[in-house]
Amino acid sequence: YTLVNASLGAQFDEWGVELYVDNLTDELAEKYINTIDDIRRITTNRPRTIGLRVNYKYY
Questions:
Q1: CB 17: neighbour CB atoms within 10 A?
Q2: By Cβ atoms counted within 10 A, which residue in 22, 26, 51, 59 is the most buried?
Q3: Is residue 36 included in any domain, yes or no?
Q4: Whole-number Cα distances in Å, 21 to 5, 15, 28, 34, 49
Q5: Does the predicted model carry a pTM greater than 0.90?
């Protein structure tokens, strides 16, 4: 599987802002499979996540 992440940001003096997307294509990957006690348990990756980061640099 292939995961694609992207971000775009800008810095304005002390303030910064960044828009990000993790798992842009919303790929579903089975990272681990456990079959203890004949019960199938599957660990997958996180779904598409979209967010906004804001930061402030103080001196």
A1: 13
A2: 22
A3: yes
A4: 6, 20, 15, 29, 6
A5: no
**Please, which contacts does 38-47 make with residues 24 or more away whose CB atoms are closer than 8 Å?**
45/1, 45/3, 46/22, 47/23
Residues sharing a CB contact under 8 Å with residue 40, sequence separation 6 or more, in sequence order: 33, 34
**CA 36 → CA 3, 33, 39, 42, distances in Å?**
29, 10, 6, 11
**Residue 14 domain boundaries:** 6-56
Q: Report the number of distinct structural domains present in the chain.
A: 1
